[in-house]
Write a structure and sequence with these properties.
Elements lengths: L5 H24 L7 H4 L19 H19 L50
Helix pairs in contact: 1-3
Length: 128
């Protein structure tokens, strides 16, 4: 059953409200900039792992709001009807079975490699 529970629905509403608050604070205080690649800070120079976005570099208010979004996401993950959302992601044979297959919208990231510009051309992703 992939229908969300009442708890999940309540957490989703709480998450959307927290995201609106984060965006309001970013409009007030500014946004972060990520340049792509190792030189730009997107990837760690040693192991090429994605760098984590530090919202506190914008302001304490934005950092705390981002922490709140992350905490709600953690709560929501505990009640998700999908056990492994990324199962088959990028799998050439079974990719259509991935729960994330199809069009979806990223509302938040704390990973520098998850930041997209309006004219991004990363893989099959499109930014709108």
């Amino acid at each position: 059953n992939l229908e969300p529970s009442p708890t999940a629905s309540a957490l989703k509403a709480k998450l959307l409200q927290a995201l609106d608050n984060l965006r309001h604070l970013q409009e007030r205080d500014g946004d972060f900039a990520v340049d792509f690649g190792v030189k730009g800070g997107e990837l760690n120079a040693t192991d090429r792992a994605p760098q984590q976005v530090n919202y506190y570099t914008i302001s304490d208010d934005v950092g705390m709001a981002a922490d709140n979004v992350t905490a709600i996401c953690d709560e929501l993950a505990q009640v998700s009807p999908v056990e492994e959302a990324t199962m088959y992601l990028g799998d050439r044979v079974n990719g259509a079975l991935c729960p994330l297959n199809g069009e979806w919208r990223q509302l938040f990231t704390n990973s520098a490699d998850g930041v997209f510009t309006k004219n991004s051309t990363r893989g099959a992703a499109t930014a709108r």
